[in-house]
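User: Sequence in, structure out. Go.
Assistant: Echoing your sequence, followed by the structure tokens.
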Amino acid sequence: MAASAIVLCVLLRIVGGTLDIYLDKNETKAFGMSESRFYYVRNGDLVDGSFRNPHVIPYDKSGIRFTWNAQSSWLYSMRFQSSDESVMRQPSTLINAIGIVPRNVSSFFISLPCAGTGEATFRFALNISDLRYSSVRALIVSIQRPRLCGRNVKHVTPAPPPKDPNDNTVSNKGGDDSLDEEKTSWTFKLTVAVASTILAIVIIIFIGFQYRKCNEPKLSEAQARAELITLRSLPGDVALGTMNPKTTLNGNCNDSGYASRVVDSGRSAASKLKSVQVDRRRISLEVTVKEGTIGIFCLGKLGHFDPDMVSVGSRVTREKSPHLGGEDVLVKAIKGGASDRDIHQFLATASKFVLDPHRNVLTVIGITSAMTGLPAIVYPFVSDGVILKEMLRKHKKTNASGIPLQPLSVPQLVYISAQLARGLNHLARNRVVHADIATRNCLITGQLQVMITDGVLGSDLYPDEYDSIGGPNGERLPVKWMAAETLAGGPCRTESNVWSFGVSVWEIMTQGDVPYEKESPGNMLAYLTEGQRLDQPPSCPNQVFSLMGQCWALSPEDRPNFHQLTISLHEFYAALTCFI
């Protein structure tokens, strides 16, 4: 299938504003190009020859990322299409289809999810206009690129059609995919200019109308905006520009102990355990929430704070952690039948959650020593908290007519996803790799506040969601939530957690469905490396599904970080509550 690019540029005299659109060094490297930047538009002008490079998109790239910025107000509109949806699903991106090119250097990712095996054509049209003056400068760019789906699929450039011997037309040296500007009529230029002006006026009126609508008093919008303002302002949480987008840790999820053997670059597990150590005799188990073969998750009681009975470190004091002196707590405990390895993993995994308090993370406030009997982990009490997976499934239950009894709205599901991203961003900032991100390892309150838990006893409490695929010691792993590189035996990093987050968002949008339910665990690695992914849930917005697709990029470097995911989901939630 031939790769082609058609560029039409209509330039009317204007004191121009700078506009750049290019592929950065990571993208050029992925395409095997020598340039550190490959410009399509530079300083407001098209770059000669930039559209003639075929840029075949290989099977192991989940999409293409463009970088852009402008020094004046450039209005854009974009659309894209797949030539064959049986090979590649319709492309999608998280940014709006119509908007203003950002002043700061930023990027947008177009997800190109494979649906089968073969070659399809990715078509991308981008119309950009500088509207500062009465005369209009417009760039109309249309790009077509081959997209390969499947490891063994090769791009074949078809031979050009035979030339008609009676055709004396002189060929265009720029190729069939380029149009000679000198042959473009002034009538057509004027038509494009007028059309762009009319389009700009319509869009400005529309944006003004929606701005007024969004500023009408509305509780849901106020809550969304307040949440977003808080999100952008907290210096210790996810303040813009403070997080290293490529925080990575060493550690192999397939080592003995999937979660516990991921390297934590902070304090040692031993020092964390000592800082929150409590006497086992101060804990009593009350109401069981979930029970497994060797462990139990329940509501419990913690005796009054007693310096003679409780050893605490600098992080845990009566003032900083009043839960230690309270009565109601949540407890995970070993109940018997556990091996020494199980107990070691139980304590090591929990030690990673000895952190500063955060509204979206259920931090550990007490751990008993294995030397004083069977160990237990103590968490702050959550008055109306339930396991997120159980809550989602409860709200999905239907009556005899198949109608959900207590349906969750799309904005509510997006809000839940945004909080999950925010909690994981907090963990990433503290250089903690969770290694078992899923809805079974989260709590949620009646006010839809999400709290990530440590994953301790996950395989014991939800055995059907873990499988043994020949790992060390026959360990059962959350195979269908794991990133492709981890399934292949590679290290479990923050980027691997991003993949698992995408699967967890899919769980949320399906309200508790099991991912890849019909796929064999032993075949998951081959399935993923061939470009296969989860289907878009029926009620899932395109923007959210595009975000999932970015999380499932085969190359870890192509995935967004939790800082970006948090901002994107909160802003999308704010937009949803504005328009509803």
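User: And one key feature?
Assistant: The first helix runs from residue 25 to 30.
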